Amino acid sequence: MSERGFSLQLLPGHGLSILIEKDNLKLLFDTGSSEKLLLYNMRRMGFDINEIDYLFISSWKKCHAGAVNEVFRLNPRIKAFAPPVTSSITLVKPKDISRIIFIKSTEPREILPGVYTTGIYCKKWYCEHALFLKATENILAVFLGCSTYGFSHFIKRTEKTAKKYIIGGLHLSKLDFIGFKLLKQLVAEENVEGVLPLHCTAPDARKEIIKWKGILQDTGVGIEFAL
């Protein structure tokens, strides 16, 4: 739990949910695993679920989309961008698909002004995509969900010349020497200015990443930053 999260009495959990604000747009990147946890933490931080304009689901794993049906119920106007739902019994099944814009392309495309999907990356079990947005003309914020099948294909699908900040799950532990080598290579090649490791990035890996390329010194629930 982050220092801010501690002071606000926020509750941590295994999952990921990030509220993104760009101009007058509020977009929720993933919902985490629990609607009770999501709504409690939002209230503590002074947000209402009905303020959210759009929902971006990186994958249908419960730790990323566990609260999606409750979000749809509570916010009748919200629309979602999500990868296809596969037949795996372990994944969340949305009850109202009429409110979902399914991303089926493997190529990046603009989904909202200045907001992009990387396009999906699929294997047999499930599909995943990532989000990137233009913070300024030359700065991108790249949001990763779980990166179960790797983070490199998502980062490489963004604009190569722009400076990048990477936020989210990297699916790394400190013992993953190959993964760390690849991350350092991508940081150099893809003009990455900073990394905020979250969710499925192991605590030892987070500390290591923060030492050499961290955006913040804190990576728990309740952190805030602006680009």
SSE topology:
Blueprint: H1 3-7, E1 18-22, E2 25-29, H2 35-44, E3 54-56, H3 62-65, H4 68-74, E4 79-82, E5 100-102, E6 109-112, E7 115-117, E8 121-122, E9 127-128, E10 131-136, E11 139-144, H5 152-156, E12 163-169, H6 177-189, E13 192-198, H7 203-213
Parallel strand pairs: 2-3, 3-4, 4-5, 11-12, 12-13
Antiparallel strand pairs: 1-2, 6-7, 7-10, 8-9, 10-11
Descriptive report:
The protein is α/β, with parallel strands linked by helices and 227 residues long. It folds into 2 domains: 104 residues, Ribonuclease Z/Hydroxyacylglutathione hydrolase-like (Metallo-beta-lactamase, Chain A, 4-Layer Sandwich); 88 residues. It has 7 helices and 13 strands. The strands form 3 sheets. The protein has a 6-stranded mixed β-sheet. Strand 6 and strand 7 form a beta hairpin. The protein is globular and about 45 Å long. The model has no long low-confidence stretch (mean pLDDT 93).
